[in-house]
Amino acid sequence: MMLDIDHARRRAAAPGRRAVLVRRAGRAGQTWLLVMLITLFALWPLYWMVVQSLQPRGERYLFPPQLLPTEPTFAAFSAIWESTEIVVWLRNTLVVAVCSAALTLVFAAWGAYAMSRWHTRGVGVAGFLTLATQMMPGIVLMIPIFKAFIDLGLVGGLHGLVVANFIFAVPVATWMLKSIFDTIPEEIEEAARVDGCNRLGVLFRITLPLALPGVVATGVFAFIASWNEYMFARLIITRSTDWVGSMGIASFFGELSTPWPEVMAAALVFAAPPVVLFLAFQKYFVAGLAGASK
């Protein structure tokens, strides 16, 4: 009798379990569909750049647009390597991005450590003012910065662009690193100081190694911000031999015509280094941002 009752209960509960499984499967399917749509939306510009750079010129004006080039050609890539100074642009962009990122990390680490470990009212005000500088649009500061850079002799070369990128990256980098340093227990540093390590040694031997994912994430952020910068490059750089990638790509746009295959090819070339850098340090970047969010 008891077995019959248990069997009846299981049979009655089976439809409920199936309904729960169906609902869970439906939610999982909706989630994956949403993720796929977002991924497609994010990757579509990159895909279309590849298509446009490989299409012959005649195919660009067909209707409906060709989603795949019927006769792919690398003529656009050959043209930019042979008829432009793209190697010089790449070199200049790399120099500016690396130097700006290095300066940003050095100064942001000092400021972030001070803001994280010294809990005084003055430090809090300084931190707020540092973040408040990001509320001002960069274009509003163009004229004051240009005048100041003329007085300092920073207009006309890559060194001025390095300084400009550093100035605008260091506030955000400081707050990113402060969030990372806040997650590191101060007891670890106090134990190191009891063992005889001074404050400078604690920073370089204890705090920075523990905060390595956040430091890498901040460096990647500063590098990409400098790599993509155009407004201040246009303002500060005066010689074509000092052009960076953003200025070089902008030079393709003419008054009467624009060679779009060459534009897309050059854009792909300059998009490759940041993508490779991000993929190489992806785990550090994700871990650093996760720590910053905490």
Q: Can you tag this structure with a few keywords?
A:
single chain, 294 residues, mainly alpha, MetI-like fold, 2 domains, 13 helices, 77% helix, globular, transport, Carbohydrate ABC transporter permease, membrane, transmembrane, MetI-like_sf
Written description of the protein model:
Helix content is 77%, strand content 0%. It has 294 residues and is mainly α. The chain folds into two domains: 2-61; 76-293, Orthogonal Bundle (MetI-like fold). Helix 6 (158-182) runs antiparallel to helix 9 (212-228). The radius of gyration is 27 Å and the shape is globular. 27% of the residues are buried. Belongs to the binding-protein-dependent transport system permease family. Pfam families: BPD_transp_1. It comes from Jiangella asiatica. The chain crosses the membrane at residues 31-50, 94-113, 125-146, 158-181, 202-225, 263-281.
CATH H-level superfamily title of the largest domain: MetI-like
User: Which structural class matches the secondary elements?
Assistant: mainly alpha
Strand fraction band? under 5%
Q: What percent of residues adopt helix (DSSP H or I)?
A: over 70%
Poorly predicted ranges (pLDDT <50, ≥5 residues)?
Answer: none
Number of spatially distinct domains: 2
Give a quick account of the main beta sheet: strands, pairing sense, barrel closure.
Answer: none
The rounded Rg comes to: 27 Å
Provide the succession of SSEs.
HHHHHHHHHHHHH
User: Number of DSSP helices?
Assistant: 13
**CATH fold-level assignment of the largest domain:** MetI-like fold
Protein name: Carbohydrate ABC transporter permease
Keywords: Cell membrane, Membrane, Transmembrane, Transmembrane helix, Transport
Family: Belongs to the binding-protein-dependent transport system permease family.
Domain ABC transmembrane type-1: 90-281
